[in-house]
Structures are given as structure tokens and as C-alpha cells.
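Appendix B. Raw example, untouched.
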Amino acid sequence: TAAFTDLRNYVKKRVGKLRYRVGTEYRTVPITDAAVLPSGIVRVQASIVPSGAVTINRVELLNSNGDLWAHQDVSITIEEGQTGVLYWFDFTIREGTE
């Protein structure tokens, strides 16, 4: 139990920022929340609020050193007048054997 708590808190504390790509241009936004859910999942989220209509083709999560931790290739279209999107990464930490 202590190991799971430590690992979840480590992930929560080490996340740095979220970066997304429009075309070939990357834009960075701050993390708005990093929390351990009651299920034990660590959820890291950020609000992506670009100016104008865009199509996001990649979302990346960087740690506090700027190293890539996770990414997803996506196709998220934000229309003119739409506020933006809330995007998150979920991390599940569990014990297992191979």
C-alpha cells in the first residue's frame, strides 16, 4: 500500500506541462490539475484554449524537467467560438507478474 501511494504521489508531483501540436507548431499550456482519484488512477489534466479554429493533431505530457512522459496522436477540431477542450492523461499503477 505504501509503495502505491508513493508512486502515485511521485507521478502527481513530477508532471510539468502539457504540450499540443497544431500542424507542425507546438503550444504549451500549464497543468490545471493532477489528482489521485478514489480508484487509485492518477489523472493529469489541462485546459487547451487556442485562439480561433484549429485542429490539434498531437498532445504530449512533459515532466518537470521537460522530458516526454506520454503522448497521443489525435484529431481534435476546435471551431471558432468554442471555448476549448479539457484534456487528460490517466495513469494506472498496479502490481503484476509476467
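End of appendix B.
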